Amino acid sequence: MFLKRIIFFTALCAGLAACSDHPKEPTPETPANPTPAKPVLAEAPAFNADSAYEFTKRQVDFGPRTLKSKAHENCAQYFIARLKAYGLKVQVQEGIVKNYEGKSFPFKNITGSFHPENNTRIAVFCHWDSRNIADQDSIRKTEPIDGADDGASGCAVMLEIARDLQSKNPAVGVDVIFLDAEDTGQPEGTDAADHQEDTWCLGSQYWSKHLPDNYAPRLGILLDMVGAKGASFPMEGESMQYAPDLVRKVWGIANDLGYSGFFTYKEDGFITDDHVYINRDAKIPTVDIINYDREKGGFGFYHHRHSDNMNIIDKTTLQAVGQTVLQVIYSEVP
Fold it and tell me: pTM, whole model, 2 decimals?
């Protein structure tokens, strides 16, 4: 993904009436500090972080999933086999994309659909390719990276969600969509191309312009870098621009589940990621759950470096994201 711009938010006073000189005194019928009612959440399956961790490792074990590589093809077949084993209908969208150097590459977007006959649908996305260069590293900069968090962790969460759907039918249909060719963009600092951000997310750009007839999910959730220890998921700027109500809903559910340490009520950064094109071109309101913290340097220390390996993957983070997304799915009604 490419950081398009950072914006700064100024906190505003919430509710001018509450700032009056003569606040209303509490009455016996209105306690001064009422205990908030515990939210009633829909019953969702328990997300298994151990399983998600193993799904992450399995992808990394294939090697870097760069376009045209054997690891890329092996991983694609693994996803297809797993989704079919979990009873999902699988569709593979294939095409050719050109990267910022003008080189052509075949790609595969892979969709697994649970109850495809259900017209009310939720889409969960991630990218499954890994960066072909370590352009942010100080060593082996021209070699591909493992992409354990940047790619594999989101796919692992989606595979575990696909497995969990078998235990209890949600009221809506669910699509898990593995997008290709996201991490092939032009490195920052090279000769700038027009619209440099559009050299990223090539698979989602194609997908968003070639939707199946009458395909209109109610909402979308994009997972990107969702497995590292100490991750922080802010209310990302593009998500707030296109789908603010959905952001608040997802973050509210995460906090109700006890994951406030991960899902922070902090608006931070405008990031060019797959959700931009899904929102803009496919018109599907979609939020990005992505590890980013401007105050700590932006993306994680491992971003586009060889340190993006299994050593940084944490089951607690996978649990927080996976259970939150499951809860969103099972909270939806037709």
Answer: 0.89
